[in-house]
Design goal:
With 192 residues, the protein is of the alpha/beta class. It is 44% helix and 8% strand.
Length: 192
Amino acid sequence: DLVVEPTVLSRSNITSTPKTLVQRRIQELEESSIQFFIYTDDILTLPDLRRKALEDYKPYTWKAKWGRRFADYSVGEVRYIEALENHTMRTENASEADFIFVPIPIGATLFWGTAELRKRAFRHLFYNETYFKEYPEKHVFLSVTERVFTNFWGLSKDELKLLRPTTIVKDCNNPAYREWQEAENIPRCDPG
């Protein structure tokens, strides 16, 4: 069995070494040969939607009060995508890539877009992008929404099955979410 010990940053382990733990991790990344590819098609990148997210355009298209906390997360999602687009480990050649990042700003589509726009982006990826058809397991998505593998994204069950071999990076703290719901007197929308 492999046991992974978390790394705890403390003043003692940062100042007692010639290089801080953060500096060592940065050096490891800089010396790494990992490369990633990012799609550039506007149907996937949704530049107008991303602009609205960064400007925090009002009104939101998502009206549910319980979901408003995701607006800030969605802006962060767009900034993360932009950082990856400008990263030195990015390659323009998908066949050289260790993974392929899909730049659909999923959270932003909830606040500044429509279900149709989100579905169009996913369907374009599924049915038009050769690398997705050939290497779905190399694809990585970022999602700030808690409900990933449901019809919440507006995709059919068959379309959701196309995501099975992919990796979806998602940040969710369900206990903190439940606490926030209770504090705001927002009824839960799920049974559990």
